[in-house]
């Protein structure tokens, strides 16, 4: 099967799933959504998935691995504190079920408190 054909099948399946979800929500909230809205939302979600998968692959390759793991996912979520918190909770729950230790807390980077405000190496000349 050609890559273009696979991509079209994936987009069609995504369009169907998003359409079902939007229809269910519209019924619950007594709203209406146009096919154009569903199409635009599908394209947005597809592009986000594509970008996310590319980023995860890049992080994994940079770490010298061929398999994406939880470190790559946590790295991806680093700029979204809410998402990062939720993912850490879910990961901790999964690890607890497996009997593994929880995700360590994020290391604080930067100067330790009380460090001099000057720049560069060494002491300033007096």
UniProtKB/TrEMBL annotation:
InterPro entries listed in its UniProt record: CENP-S/Mhf1, Histone-fold
Give an example GO molecular function. DNA binding
Q: Name one GO cellular component term.
A: FANCM-MHF complex
Annotated stretches, region: Disordered: 95-126
Please name the SUPFAM superfamilies in this protein's record: Histone-fold
**Keywords, A to Z?**
DNA damage, DNA repair, DNA-binding
What's the short name of a Pfam family annotated to this entry? CENP-S
**Sorted alphabetically, which Gene3D superfamilies does this protein's record hold?**
Histone, subunit A
Q: Name one GO biological process term.
A: DNA repair
Top-rank taxon: Eukaryota
Q: Where is the composition biased (Basic and acidic residues)?
A: 95-107
Instruction: Please state which protein family the record places this protein in.
Output: Belongs to the TAF9 family. CENP-S/MHF1 subfamily.
Query: Which PANTHER family does the UniProt record give?
Result: CENTROMERE PROTEIN S (PTHR22980:SF0), CORTISTATIN (PTHR22980)
The protein here is known as: Centromere protein S
